[in-house]
Amino acid sequence: MKEYCWARLGWLVAALVSAPLGCGASGPFEKPFTARWQNDRGRSISLVQERLAGSKTPVGQPLAVGVGAGGLIALPLDGNGVAWSQAATLDALPAIAGDVVVATAAGRLLAFEARTGKPLWNVDAEGRRLRGAGDDGGTTAVTLGSREDGQPSQLLLVDRAGHVRHRLDSAAELGRPAVLAGVAFVPWQNQYVSAIDVESGEEIGRLLMREQVSNALAIGGFVFVGQLGLLRFDDRIAAATTGGARRIELPFKKLPGDPVWLSDGTKTELPTAGARARVRLLARPVERGEEIELAAGHFAATYYRVVMGFRAEGAKLAWVKTLPADSLGGGAASPGFVLCDKLGGVHRIDATSGAAQAPLSLGARVRACVVQAGDLSVAANAPAPSLTEQVSEAIFLHDPEMAAAHEFLLSEIGVLADPAVTRLLIDVLSAPRTSPRLRVVAERLLAARRDGVDAMLAALQSHYDYLTDTLRTPPVGALAEALAAMKEHRAAPLLAEHLNDPANPAEDLVRIAKALTVLATVEQLDELLAFLALYRATADEEALVEAVLLVGKALLALQNDAAREAVENAARGPLTVPAVRRGLAELLEVRPAREPGAAASSAAP
Amino acid sequence: MFRGFLRALLIGASVWGSAALAATSVSAAPKTNAKVDVEALRAELESGEEGRMLSALAELSTHGKDLPEAANLLRGVLERGASVPVIEAALSVASLLARAELSEAVARYTRHRSPSVRLTATRTLGATGGTAAIPALRAALRSADAAVRGAAAEGLGRLGAKEAVGELFLALDRRVLQAASAIGRLCAPPECLALSERLGRVPLEAMTDGIDHILLRSASEMPDEHKVKVIARVAALATADAARYLVGVANRWPAGDAGKARRALKDAIESLGEKDPLKKP
Questions:
Q1: Taking chain A, what is the end-to-end CA distance rounded to the nearest angstrom?
Q2: Which of A380, B43, B71, B97 would suit a FRET pair with A413, their CA atoms being 20 to 30 Å apart?
Q3: Nearest Cβ partner of B80 from A465, A597, A605?
């Protein structure tokens, strides 16, 4: 301590700061969390770093803690403990800090041993609610938020015996703290991180961040601070003000529900999970040489019942895991992910494949859940299904709440070259419960496919059939477009049959007819002639007119006398719909026929 | 002026379907033995003018039965295609002519996108028969259009399409009630029993026509023991409607047939509290 005071004094002299000096209660900071401070460009925090160099935060007990109807329900995740519960009426989401679980209930701040649930201490919360907690194995730092506007935030530093060593009020909103070797790191006012000596309660260093900061976290022995991204507290932390600190953030990816990695640490989270808790990003920074990266090179996103894994590089979808119920909380392991659902299920998922170990259970339904994965390593113990199969499982949940995830997943895999994807798109489009919006996405993707021809041809064999309960037509329009682009002539007879199937929507007829201009041979002459005869004089909607003209074009492309004669007759026929007549005439490059009433030189069709 | 009036009537006829067309044409062009000018009729039908074509079709509806060329003329109209009123009128005339050689030309219209054209064509096939009729009606039984399914079922029954009984059962089980009558006409004895097993699930009023066809067949076509089972299933409904229906069957029962089935009918009627119309069958 004495040594540190000298170091601090040295810095103060060097910095020529005019503020009151000394190693006593006063120092470079008048009082913790006060804004009257001149930016020292990282010097004070650098001194703190030098003091703490080589120190590590405790690994912490891997644990899932749920908020059940009766209070806390906890489950150690490493098999080295038994599930425990504690009755309490919580007023905020509990926090796991190393080997301690803290919660606020009935105006008290409670702490329990993470492994066993044994009560450790119980102190007055002064009517405040838990915001966040950190622990270094000896002292627990807890930030409490006010119930009412205007009431200051509070930092409590409590030792294992339950002695409140310091209780510091702050007019500025305090974020979630971390503790490393006797120094608490407390974000505040969304721009500062103060280092508070747990012995003296004095602020011994301060970091001015160039970005939003409301969280200090202990991860893998290090303290990280930030919100959108995380800066590591290490030998480069002093350079944070100039952007030189070690920092990691997740690659940007537009994801369903716009999940965030870290919530705003200055806000109290309620003990009942809302939408935000169900839609989250999970990632764990790890050291790699001089830099930091994401564990196993992957991060995860939750969206209600679906967990999606992404490669950090390029943010490409790697896997999808469908949970039995909404995810309420989770944590990133080293590597892997642990999530708990509202039924109390705890799921351990491999980071790279999405393969899940046998689920654990909290033993009861929960309203909210927090997970500290610690150094737990979740490895696949069985091969995961293919990505397409995983997406298929997620999509066929047919849960309207999942619509955004379904669209996202389909768009992600819809561009992958894999015949199984083509099959999935066809299945999605053939399923009666597929939502109209998802249908639009699937249609677009299917039309752009250039593989899975066999699946496409098989799908075209199907027609509406009331007797076999086939009450949807296959996606013939998109299939026609894709097969024509692939010059797949085997599709021609199937498409010709669909052309004359009234169950297909008129819009699809246009795409079928267009495909037949490329694919049809003289073998499809009868179907093409039949279509022309049926609709040249009855086409009563724009799409049908367009389809008739395309059929005319397909007939002319056959270079067949009968085909050309039929088109010529239709172009001359007084009963032919005027738009069809004009269009066919243009195709034939002849003048349109005379108007009805004029004498016809030959049989007018 | 009269010509204009006739034309209006014909257009109306095409909208209202075959019955209306027949009625209109009869009133507009009284049936005579006057010689029909086939070439003139052909020219009108090939004119491509809706009014002239409808007039010619009206004439065909009147004289077509006696005109060997009528089917050819009609087929030409259907194959070339025309407006919806003309096509519907042509289909109605085809129904009146009931010529098997028209079935192919008519069949393609069972897949037309216009619901009214589809329905008229389906009904027409039941009248024309012909090689294309049964396959087209079997396909129409699978249609998305309930009216077309019903008409297809009726047509299959009328055309004696025994090969379609399996599909008719599928249709009946999906509420195509017209299939019950068709099955009654077409069923082999075990199939007839299978039809009677639907009693209770399918309303009796939808089943009576089919049951009639079963019970009133000759003993050589339908053994008495099967009829007895069918009668028992009707009686098991134990409703006033069932009793009334069985009395009606007894009234239509072939005179002189006093076999096992007739006795079972009598017992069933009496068990339902009604009087058998023939005391001593």
A1: 106
A2: A380
A3: A605
